[in-house]
Amino acid sequence: MKPPAPGRGDELGTGPAGIALLHIERARAGCGEWDNVREWAAAMTCDPVIADPAVCGLYRGAPAVAFTLHTADQPAYTDVLTVLDGHVATITGHRLAHAHARIKNGRFPELREFDLISGLTGIGAYLLHRHGGGEQLRDVLAYLVRLTEPLTVDGETFPGWWCGSAAGGEPSQRWPGGHGNLGLAHGIAGPLALLATAMRRGITVAGQAEAMDRICCWLEQWRCGTGANAWWPGMISQAERRGGTVQQPGPQRPSWCYGTPGMARAQQLAALAVGDPQRQRHAEEALAGCVADDKQLSLLGDASLCHGWAGLLLSTWRAAADADDGGKLAGLVPRLQEGLEYRLRQHGLPVGDGLLEGAAGVLLAQHTTASNASASSGWDACLLLNG
User: What band does 79 get if pLDDT is binned at 50, 70 and 90?
Assistant: First the structure.
């Protein structure tokens, strides 16, 4: 992988910021060169790094670059991280003020207000990864608690995270009345995973456990099937919400971003945080059933981290490390490793070098799961899988 032409360096999902994570993890694990890290860090910062609160999030701009440089844990990056911390603090304060004003005015949120990729959940994941706590992280957690409180619009009560538009942020004839997003990347499973991960590390705010329970109860409401046959839709329509019934015919692809793996991992983390063995068992059974189901696996169209084999593998590997299931999930990990390897033999690495849909994410998932130990750099904190 050679650095591309400048212009997209501070993109974590598609640009050099994400690719640098691969070289950082390899260097920290002793199987890569720090010269490669420096080369990609230079590509990441060759153009001015965006610090506009309107567009920045964990996967773009100052937070993305800061996440990556912090992951390297190198003294050479101390000064630039101090500068970036100031920008991230400003971005966080601006985003929180905007979100609280929106709630006060009784309006629906946009996904990018709260999600992992672009919103405050992603910024919170960075603050936890970078500082291990702090007042701004607590402010983000307090906002997420408030997000889970019911929202009344035009006399009708919705979950606080209900979006009045389609997933892309624009009104759509396919989603009249908006939607409720369940996914880990863009939906309410992301805030759940952050709230749970923070609690597991001893970081709590008022109402945190209750907020997690509200999210879990909503996910349980929309669970289809039970035990090993359980699955979740990625999004709930207004018609489904009003009717109380999922109208989708069956499981979607088993992806990290929108599928059962990401949602099951988030619920497992929540159960571990509050000590709920029944909820933990339900999450682990659903994930094991998904992994063992050839019909669901056949829906995976590529090897990628976001929505392919690599994301399923990493999600399952992380969940297996925390599972209380007699080793069932751990026993399924080799099946997924073989599935990913087969996919790569047949089709090669994904086109593009990026983290979420490209080669870097696949190689990171392979490296991390093959080592059977926690990632040296903690790189997958940006996926909220590491608990």
Answer: very high
Instruction: For 268-330, give the DSSP string.
Output: HHHHHHHT-HHHHHHHHHHHHHHHH-HHHHTT--S--TTTSHHHHHHHHHHHHHH--STTHHH
d(CA 235, CA 175): 10
Residue 108 is given by DSSP the state: P
pTM over 0.90: yes
Q: If you average pLDDT over every residue of the chain, what do you get?
A: 94
- Residue pair 282/267 in contact by the 8 Å Cβ criterion: yes
The single-letter code of the amino acid at 24 is I
Token representation of residue 81? 């991280």
Classify residue 74 by burial, with Cβ atoms within 10 Å: 0-12, 13-18, 19+: middle
For 47-67, the pLDDT digits (tens) are 899 999 999 999 999 999 999
270/213 Cα distance (integer angstroms): 8
Alpha helix locations (H) across the chain? Answer: 16-28, 34-44, 62-72, 78-104, 111-114, 120-131, 135-147, 189-200, 208-221, 238-243, 260-274, 277-292, 294-297, 309-322, 328-347, 359-371
310-334 pLDDT, tens digit each:
999 999 999 999 999 999 999 999 9
**253, 291 in Cβ contact below 8 A?**
no
- Positive or negative, the Cα torsion across 215, 217, 219, 221? negative
Residue 2 reports pLDDT greater than 70: no
